[in-house]
Design goal:
The protein is α+β, with helices and mostly antiparallel strands. Helices cover 18% and strands 47% of the residues. Strands 1-3-2 form a 3-stranded antiparallel sheet.
Length: 57
């Protein structure tokens, strides 16, 4: 793959509030962020963390 055809990504991790998950993810999605995964945060399953990505440029 040529250098000019390679997609560059930027990443973000955000804490999710269980009672407001959809609104939080929708807000980031409007800005072009794509959800990659959701994993338990350092505080356990009650504090999930979302991992997102979007193309740079």
């Amino acid at each position: 793959m040529s250098e000019s055809a390679r997609v560059r990504w930027e990443y973000a991790t955000i804490p999710l509030l269980i009672h407001n998950t959809k609104a939080i993810l929708d807000s980031w999605g409007v800005d072009g962020w794509e959800l990659v995964t959701v994993l338990p945060g350092p505080g356990g399953a009650d504090q999930p963390v979302a991992y997102l990505k979007r193309p740079v440029g």
